[in-house]
Amino acid sequence: MRRTRVTVGLVALAVGAALLVAAIAGSGTSTHGRASGSFAWLRPAPPPTGWKVARIAGGSTFAYPPGWQSIKTDPGTASAALLRGESTDAYLNATPKQGAETLANWSRFRPQHNRHEGDQGVRLIASSSDLTFRGGRGSCVTDTYATSKASYREIACIVSGPRSSAVMVAAAPSALWGQQAATLQRAVSSFVP
User: Fold this and answer.
1) Residue 80 is part of a domain; what is its CATH number?
2) What mean pLDDT comes out for the span 77-83?
3) Contact 127/141 with Cβ under 8 angstroms?
4) What global pTM score does this model have?
């Protein structure tokens, strides 16, 4: 009986030691700023081979896939779209920080900005702050809104780096979101402020 207790005790001690070693080894990896929940897809990385890079005034960049076109929008910004005839199936835009938007107020600022732009039915779906981007930290929202032409879903992030702060937007008509989400998320993951 004594030998069984000693064996059980040694097995328990070995399991405990193994768990302790695993915990100590795992503690070297910080999860601070790692995307989770609704933004778990955010994995900062260089663009895939063959993607083009768009650059805005101030140096911020994002990548977009083959088949997309660079389009003209506001001065100092960069935009790319997946066009089908007269329709825009997906859209990317980067803009230098221009106003009162900050990492701390982004979850309130972005929906208010959309309303001020004339968008209707603006609904915040998710938000997160202290996210890691290539060369910076950011805050992001996912929201929906409607214009006179269609309803849209977007990912909008403000990202601050050592040189500048900029806003990255990735949007698609709500009806096409399921088809375009992975590409839009990959483009946002390529963003460098």
Assistant:
1) 3.40.1000.10
2) 98
3) yes
4) 0.81
